Amino acid sequence: MVAMVSDAPYGFRDSVLSPRTGVVAGVVGALAMLGLLNVVEPMSAVEPSAILRHIGVRVLAVCPESCGGLSPTLVGFSAHIILGTILGLLYAASQQRVPARGLVAVGIFYGFFLWVVSGLIVGPLLGESLRRAIRSWPWLLASLLYGSSLAAVALWVESHRAPEPSDVVQLD
Fold it and tell me: DSSP assignment of 12-61, as one string?
């Protein structure tokens, strides 16, 4: 007979974030991305408002009559926040409860993965100027910050969660 002993205070199959918290984490991460891009704008050729405006123009081109009076920058900002929300929800649905180091590592990897995917898949659909911006070092830093923000929210939630009672089994 083989006995396994686990000292983990939680089940590894549980999600660390609820869907609602994943949405909030995604919005926080998307806003943090824009904040970082604004901070590094003087050192880089990446202007966040121009990126948002460009995205907004692309979105508005799909619905020219029904979206006539909307600002392209506001539409681009909304698209960025919606995408951040969806990706935060995806993170919440897939991130299981693990130790803190695991949450941080997964968050950073998630941000890096999003940067790679945005450069390979999304960038070519949006035009040359936006493709250059997405493949730049400021966008990499912003993507890493997005993933780190998701991990920070997950760490905060995990630190405020009551420990689950575990079954105590006496081993002879």
Answer: TTSBSS-HHHHHHHHHHHHHHHHHHHHHHGGGSS--HHHHHHHHHHHHHH
**pLDDT per position as a tens digit, 139-171:** 899 999 999 999 999 888 877 776 665 566 667
Location of structure tokens 């999304």: 122
Residues 87, 90, 92, 97, Cα dihedral to 10°: -120
Helix (H) or strand (E) holding 125: helix 123-126
Amino acid type, 85: T
Tell me the backbone φ, ψ of residue 82, rounded to 5 degrees: -65, -45
- Max intra-chain CA distance, the chain: 76
pLDDT band at 3 (very low <50, low <70, confident <90, very high): very low
Mean pLDDT of the 82-107 span: 84
pTM of the entire predicted model: 0.79
Half-sphere exposure of 93 (CA within 13 A, CB side): 7
**Residue 141, helix vs strand vs coil:** helix
In the chain, domain spans:
19-159
Dihedral sign for Cα atoms in the order 75, 81, 83, 89: negative
